[in-house]
Amino acid sequence: MVGLARKPAVLEVPATVGALGEIAAFVLLLAGRAGLGKGATYRIRLAVDELATNIVMHGYRGGDGRITVRGRSGPDGVRIVIEDTAPAFDPVEGRLPPAPGVPPERRRVGGLGIHLALTSVDTYAYARRDGRNISTLTVKAEGTDACPPRT
Amino acid sequence: MPLSVSLSIEGDTTVIELTGELDAKTAPEFHQTIEKAAGHGTGTVEIRMAGVGYMASAGLRSLVFAQQKVGSGVTIKVVGAIEPVSRTIRTAGLDRSIQLSDG
């Protein structure tokens, strides 16, 4: 993304529920540096939180692991890259759009977190490289409407 | 930011008031309160969320859990949720079974 700072900030944390707050604080810091509005800040935080939660709960299946979050902020917005070494998982395939015909008590909410994440950001890309799952998300500083996720 | 949860009864309504952030870490506290609220057996469970500045899908899971716990004859209301929180509830389609209001 043009206009983003060259040097990324990096956070590496254990893949635990307890570390999610640290990841959120890191994302909020980057959003603040980029001068994102309230809506865009909420969206990037939600997206990263949902993807990180999914890595903790399902990626490493409760076992040991680490999550690396890299971020760049600039006048155009924020780009976040999330990496883990859990088994290959492409969130675009794992998303679960809402099922209007299904009664709430029988609905799976799990995949909905990923759906929320992918519809909250302006761009999304997944890659599997060198045994790592790599998610790249961007939220634009000025965008108000989230675009559909892309692969 | 932690979550504060309070529980009270006003007539035939059980009131749960949430303040803080509702995510994978804090949702278990909300779950415990829902269990207690379901035991009250009131006709309505009102969840006041004006003080919730952030809600992840773990919060949606809690709301679905609440519906399962209280049964079909009980009305669940979510009152005062900020716009991105109510949007998340609508995205999940939960506004069909849970009454959303500005309070």
Automatic annotation (TrEMBL), chain A:
Q: What class of enzyme is it?
A: transferase
- UniProt keyword list: Kinase, Serine/threonine-protein kinase, Transferase
Pfam families given in the database record:
HATPase_c_2
What top-level branch of life does the organism fall under?
Bacteria
Question: What EC designation does it have?
Answer: 2.7.11.1
| UniProt GO MF annotations | protein serine/threonine kinase activity
Domain Histidine kinase/HSP90-like ATPase positions:
13-137
UniProt-listed CDD domains: HATPase_RsbW-like
Checking PANTHER family in the record gives: ANTI-SIGMA-F FACTOR RSBW-RELATED (PTHR35526), SLR1861 PROTEIN (PTHR35526:SF6)
Protein name in the entry = Serine-protein kinase RsbW
Q: Which organism is it from?
A: Streptomyces lavendulae subsp. lavendulae
UniProtKB/TrEMBL annotation, chain B:
Which PROSITE patterns does the protein's record reference? STAS (PS50801)
Q: Which InterPro entries match?
A: Anti-sigma_ant, STAS_dom, STAS_dom_sf
Output the Pfam families linked to this UniProt entry: STAS
Q: Which GO terms describe its molecular function?
A: anti-sigma factor antagonist activity
Protein family (similarity comment): Belongs to the anti-sigma-factor antagonist family.
Q: What protein is this chain from? A: Anti-sigma factor antagonist
Organism encoding this protein: Streptomyces lavendulae subsp. lavendulae
User: Gene name on record?
Assistant: rsbV5
